[in-house]
Amino acid sequence: MIREEKKLDNKKILLLEENVLGPGRYARPSFRLRDGLIPNIKYSKVYYKGNKIIGSIRYFNCKIKDQSGLMLGPLIVDQIYKGRGIGRELINKSISDITSKNINFIILIGELNYYGQFGFEINNNIYFAINVRKEKILFKKLLEKNNTISGKIELY
């Protein structure tokens, strides 16, 4: 089952994150960018089986100039349940909930060969304050009111 993340889920999600991604996760640019920020639980989801959280997708508030957006990540699934489509379900459910809101875009740092199936593309006109490889910055436009979004991505 998928539901919105609750504040009480934080410890369980951090434990799952530690088990799945290990201590090396802190060296990743995406973790450094989100350090000290609180996820937007209105859009973040958990996948649970019984009373155990086996998957999680989190979103953080961001903007590019005056355009509001969300940064996706991390997307994590318990190793025991990998390959069963849980990550795909979390992405699809969360994006469908977000597209009905006034959010202009979603960005993430990841692999196009996976996230491309959800409509994410490389956008060479956006960047972070820290060095992130351009081909890893993926972008999904949600609202059609602006043709081009470009500039520095700021998380808050």
Describe the protein's architecture and organization.
There is one protein chain. The chain is globular and about 45 Å long. Strand 3 and strand 4 form a beta hairpin. The mean pLDDT is 94. It is α+β, with helices and mostly antiparallel strands and 156 residues long. The chain has a single domain, classed as 3-Layer(aba) Sandwich (Aminopeptidase). It contains 4 helices and 9 strands. Strands 1, 2, 3, 4, 5, 6, 7, 8 and 9 form a 9-stranded mixed β-sheet that branches.
Biggest β-sheet strands, sense, barrel: 9 strands, mixed
CATH superfamily: Gcn5-related N-acetyltransferase (GNAT)
Mean pLDDT: 94
Percent range for β-strand residues: 25-35%
Radius of gyration: 15 Å
Class from secondary-structure proportions: alpha+beta
Which architecture name does CATH use? 3-Layer(aba) Sandwich
Based on CA inertia axes, which overall geometry fits? globular
Number of domains: 1
Q: pLDDT under 50 segments (min length 5)?
A: none
Specify the CATH class: Alpha Beta
CATH fold assignment: Aminopeptidase
Residues in helices, as a percent range: 10-25%
Number of helices: 4
Question: H/E element string?
Answer: EHHEEEHEHEEEE
Question: How far is it from the N-terminal to the C-terminal residue, by CA?
Answer: 29 Å
Count the strands?
Answer: 9
Short description:
By secondary structure, the protein is an alpha+beta fold.
